[in-house]
Amino acid sequence: MDKLLRFRKDFKEIYVGGRWWPIEASFEDTNPSDNSLWATVPDVEVTDVQNAITSADHAFENWSNLKFNERSHYMIKIAEVLEENKMDIVKALRAEAGGWFGKAMFEAGYLPELFHAAAAANYQAIGEVIPSDSGKFSMAVRRPIGVISVISPWNFPCILTARGMAFALAAGNTVVLKPSEETPYTGGLLWAEIFEEAGVPGGVLNVVTCSRENVAEVGTELVENPLVKGVSFTGSTPVGREIAARAGAHLKKCCVELGGKDALIVCEDAEMDRATGAANFGSFMHQGQICMSVEKILVHEDIFEEFLAKFKERASKLKVGDPTEELDHIIGPLINDRQADRVKHQIEDAVKKGAKIELGGKVNGRFVDPTIITNITSDMSIYQDETFGPVVFVMPFKSDEEAVNIANDTEYGLSSGVITKDEYRGLEIAQKLETGMCHINCSSVNDEPHAPFGGSKSSGVGRHGGRWATETFTETRWITIERGGKGFPPGF
């Protein structure tokens, strides 16, 4: 096999059943920095998706019947292939996804750990013996459910694809993967190459790619096809609602990880360097295009002016530019023109309604300067709507109760952060925040492969990571062995 995309710029096939199948139609995969053509990618139709699902269904019996440790060995082999190709993956992420070198290094480096964690999950207990009032030997056990559709996003295409499928595969499920049309290689075809090189049996992973024009009908098939037993989706809340509703209508298991409007609460006893570091990283890492990004910073009024001055100073040092040109171009482009327009609208709406731009505010095509805004009111779009760009607002608060109320004043509930020297106080605040995750003395942007990742409210349903991911895509069965001589009613 050629070494990943290094020798391939023109994909004409999709990966189904362990083979590459030609597809006539294609669409352009562009570099978001300059909109130049990066690769051409197959544009599938519904019949192609149906073939992929059938392939996954056929592979399920053999894959699920493998010994648990054999599936773990495949996970370890995948991790090894990922390690061997790390720098090629970094190169692809920088060009296709518009990411800073450091972000790409983190993402590529994180991937092997995901598959090691998935391999380890198979060595944990998958059930328990429970009491029986009639003397039976009574067990609750878990088993894989079958074909899982994984629909992954563009912002962290490698990690969020891997997270959606690694534990499901290790548990014995098979997968049909559809990446975002913005990152069809790093979120999709890359994984076909990796699994092929790792020698994973055909049909265990099947990859289909499609253009924005075909995504609605392809997505519908991936959810509603009767052979699909579960859906893993990471993306926007509006699309996630629809996918969860469709899955629910067919009584299918579903894990959806959606948007956020995450807060960082900075208490008056906060260590200032730690606070501004968490704010800077949380707000501007990958241009704020992270579901866990800090989008509102709540600072105690006693330290508000000091924090704001030092935060501005720190953020002003972040360089904007094409991340493939310079290693210190930390702030790259937004993924497309639609997203840039969304961010521009939020900034303009805020200023029109009385907000003050403390830093940045400039939008040059898809490049947006790190932007800090104050004087925010609840009638502004930026207060309620997810931004998904390098823009954050800073608000003062008088009491912990007020900070919690502002943080919770959103439909979202993904992640959060609290900066304080008093860990007990931090825990008290964390317990009152309506988020699936909270990190004390750190940014809201955190992830570990073995930890439960997911949100509350409109930020999603279900959890990725560790045994929680295994539970999401397995089903619990009750099995008994009669040993106690339990009889039946008279007359039977």
Structure, described:
The protein has 492 residues and is an alpha/beta fold. The protein has two domains: 4-258 and 459-478, 3-Layer(aba) Sandwich (Aldehyde Dehydrogenase, Chain A, domain 1), CATH 3.40.605.10; 262-440, Aldehyde Dehydrogenase, Chain A, domain 2. The protein is 39% helix and 22% strand. The protein is built from 15 helices and 24 strands. It has a seven-stranded mixed sheet with strand order 14-17-18-13-12-20-21, with helices on both faces. A hairpin with a 6-residue loop joins strand 5 and strand 6 (137-144). It is globular, with a radius of gyration of 24 Å. It starts with 12 loop residues before the first strand and ends in an 11-residue tail after the last strand. The model has no long low-confidence stretch (mean pLDDT 96).
What would a concise description of this structure say?
With 492 residues, this protein is of the alpha/beta class.
Average pLDDT: 96
Give the low-confidence spans: none
Strand composition percent? 15-25%
**CATH C-level name of the largest domain:** Alpha Beta
- Biggest sheet descriptor: 7 strands, mixed
Q: How large is the radius of gyration?
A: 24 Å
CATH superfamily of the largest domain: Aldehyde Dehydrogenase, Chain A, domain 1
β-strand number: 24
**CATH architecture classification name of the largest domain:** 3-Layer(aba) Sandwich
